[in-house]
């Protein structure tokens, strides 16, 4: 366990937070960013408790996580690793703007996120 934590917490580019529902401050999930020494990438993670899935929380949390990665941690690219057969995850990541790079990874660049975010903000 100590070795896992040492590898996970290997620098300042790591982030962990609970997803808190605004209307009643109930924790409904968690997000994280960490640098994987194994695959040499910044990997993100998002987990929503089962009873809160399908309600839009994942999309909001993923957008917030991207904002943290690119504007607070100043990362240039982030990844998540899951198979394309996880259709719910594939749909949410695609909706946010992630692109599938191969059978294992989806990715988002800072430039792509900023272009998408600028377009979304200009609609209001």
What would your notes on this structure say?
It is globular and about 35 Å long. The chain starts with a helix and ends with a helix. With 124 residues, the chain is α+β, with helices and mostly antiparallel strands. 37% of the residues lie in helices and 29% in strands. Strand 5 and strand 6 form a beta hairpin. Helix 2 packs across helix 3. 18% of the residues are buried.
Any key phrases for this structure?
124 residues; 4 helices; 29% strand; globular
How are the secondary structure elements laid out?
Layout lengths: L1 H7 L6 E6 L6 E10 L4 E8 L8 H16 L4 E5 L5 H10 L2 E2 L4 E5 H13 L2
Helix pairs in contact: 2-3
Major sheet attributes = 3 strands, antiparallel
Number of helices: 4
Order of helices and strands: HEEEHEHEEH
Shape: globular
Helix content: 25-40%
Task: Give the DSSP E fraction (strand runs of 2 or more residues).
Answer: 25-35%
Cα-atom radius of gyration: 15 Å
Distance between the termini: 47 Å
Mean pLDDT: 88
Q: Major sheet: order of its strands? A: 1-2-3
Q: Low-confidence parts, pLDDT < 50 over ≥5 residues?
A: none
| Secondary structure category | alpha+beta
Query: What's the total count of β strands?
Result: 6
């Amino acid at each position: 366990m100590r070795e896992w934590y040492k590898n996970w917490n290997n620098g300042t580019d790591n982030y962990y937070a609970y997803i808190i529902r605004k209307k009643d401050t109930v924790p409904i999930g968690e997000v994280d960013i960490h640098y994987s020494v194994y695959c040499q990438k910044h990997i993100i993670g998002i987990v929503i408790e089962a009873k809160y899935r399908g309600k839009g929380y994942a999309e909001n949390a993923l957008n917030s996580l991207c904002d943290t990665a690119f504007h607070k941690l100043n990362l240039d690219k982030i990844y998540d690793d899951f198979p394309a057969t996880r259709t719910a995850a594939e749909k949410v990541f695609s909706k946010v703007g992630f692109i599938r790079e191969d059978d294992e990874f989806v990715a988002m660049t800072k430039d792509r996120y900023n272009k998408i975010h600028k377009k979304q903000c200009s609609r209001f």
